[in-house]
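New to this. Explain the following:
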Amino acid sequence: MPKKLTKRMPAAELKKFDGSYVSIRDVDGNVFEGCCTYNSTEYNEHEFGIARPALQIANFLFTTSDIEKIESLEGHSGPYGKFTTAYGLIEDLNFEDGPVCIDEELFSDDEELVWRMLLCLDAHLDPSGAFDHEDSDEIVEMVKELEKYAPSERCRKAAQELLKACE
C-alpha cells in the first residue's frame, strides 16, 4: 500500500521520501511527480535561503507548508511506469521556462525524465513545425544534440521523429 500523508506533516516525515518517486499535490492543487531528494535545513538555507527542510523534485522545492498531499509512487506501475501521466506539470513548467530548464530534463541521467520531456516537446510542437516557444530554434538544436547522445534507442528515435516534424 503506498504511503499517503494528507495532513500537514512534521518535517521529519519528509526524510522518508528521500530517493523515492512521489506525487506531490501542493497547496494550490498543482501536482508534481518525480524522484525526490530530501534537503536538510542547512542545505536549503545555504542554497536557497530557506531555513527549513524540504523535498526537491528536479528544480522544484517543497517544504511542509507547500505540500497538501504526498504519495509514494514506488509501488505504482502502469502505462507510464512509476508516473501517472505521460508527462506532467514539471515538464510543462520547464518548457515555459525555456532552454536552461529543458536542458536539465533532456540531458538527465534518468531515461524516464528524458522521455517525459520529449513527450512534452512533442505536445508543444505547432503545425508549422516550430515549438510554441520564443526559443524554438535553440530547442531544435538541443533535440539534435540529444539525437546523437540519447540514453536509449527509444529516446533517440523520439528525437529523430521530433526533428522530422520540425522540417
Notes: The CA atoms of residues 30 and 89 lie 8 Å apart. The chain has two domains: 4-72, 89-166.
